[in-house]
Amino acid sequence: MNTSSLNTAKYRRQRVPLRALVAAGLWVSILANLFPARAQIATVPARVTEDVDTTKLATLRGNTHPLARPDFDRGPAPDGMPMERILLVLKRSPEQEAALRQ
Questions:
Q1: pLDDT tens sequence across 64-76
Q2: What letters, b where the CB count within 10 A reaches 16 and e where it falls short, cover 37-73?
Q3: CA distance 50 to 73
Q4: Where are the chain's structural domains?
Q5: Whole-model pTM?
Q6: What is d(CA 37, CA 39) in angstroms, rounded to the nearest whole number?
Q7: Which CA distances in Å does 2 have to 6, 8, 9?
Q8: 66/77 Cα distance (integer angstroms)
C-alpha cells in the first residue's frame, strides 16, 4: 500500500463518527420537536375574567416617563413606526410561581 491510500483510509475513518454525530443530533432535535415538554403544553387560566371597568382605573406612581404628559402629546403614531426601548413587565400567578419553584 502506498502512503496516499493510507492517508485516504485514515481520513475516511475520521469522517464516519462526525456523520454519525450529525445524524444523531438531527434525530434528537426531530424527536424533541415531536414530543414537547409537559411544561410547555400546560394551559394557563385567564386572569382577566371580566370586562375592564374604566371608572375603576388606578395610576401607578413612578412608572411613567416624565415627558409622557398631555403637553407633549403629538397624536397617534404611524402604524409602521417601530417601538424602541419598551419594557413590559409581567407577573406570574402564585400557582405559576409555585410550579416554577418546584
A1: 888 888 999 999 9
A2: eeeeeeeeeeeeeeeeeeeeeeeeeeeeeeeeeeeee
A3: 31
A4: 1-38
A5: 0.27
A6: 5
A7: 7, 10, 11
A8: 19
Provide the grid cell at 92: 406570574
Residue 80: pLDDT over 90? yes
- The helix or strand, by DSSP H or E, that contains position 6, with its residue range, turns out to be helix 3-34
The answer to whether the beta carbons of residues 99 and 37 sit under 8 Å apart is no
How far is Cα 67 from Cα 59, in angstroms, rounded to an integer?
A: 16
- What is the rounded CA–CA span in Å between residue 92 and residue 100? 10
Give the model confidence (pLDDT) of 17-72 as tens digits: 777 778 888 888 887 777 766 555 667 788 888 898 989 888 888 878 888 889 99
Cell numbers found for residue 71: 403637553
Q: Where are the beta strands (DSSP E) in 48-89?
A: none
